[in-house]
Amino acid sequence: MTERPPDLGDLERDVMQLVWAHAPITADDVRKRLKRRLKESTIRTVLRRLKEKGFVTYVTEGRTFVYRAAEPRERVAAKAVQRVVDWLCDGAVSEVLVGMIDTAMLDDKELDALAKKIDAAKKGKA
Questions:
Q1: Spatial separation of the C-alpha atoms in residues 29 and 99, rounded to whole Å
Q2: How far apart are CA 94 and CA 55, in angstroms?
Q3: Which whole number is the average pLDDT over 10-31?
Q4: How crowded is residue 90: how many other Cβ atoms within 10 Å of its Cβ?
Q5: pTM of full prediction above 0.85
Q6: Peptide bond into 24 cis (omega under 30)
């Protein structure tokens, strides 16, 4: 997958959420789990596009394609945030984090978890 992942449409995002949550997963499984009722051929088309964009991989079991995410959700999310940081803040991640704290986007539990991750990262670099 490239450093700057392509944008996802709403349906692609919904399908990716299912892939991340339920992989390995087939097109039929995706169709059954989606809140919208779509034809399996539509789901196969979406999965093919996600493969072309580098979001999913698949193996063939018999005649069935079984899909998995190419990368964990956290890594894809981090790359998406990096795009925003680069675009709006000239690459200054600290501006985004401070903004998230200042606007109370993070609750106490999330702040504690973030602080622990920062401490662990500092110790790892020492």
A1: 39
A2: 28
A3: 97
A4: 8
A5: no
A6: yes
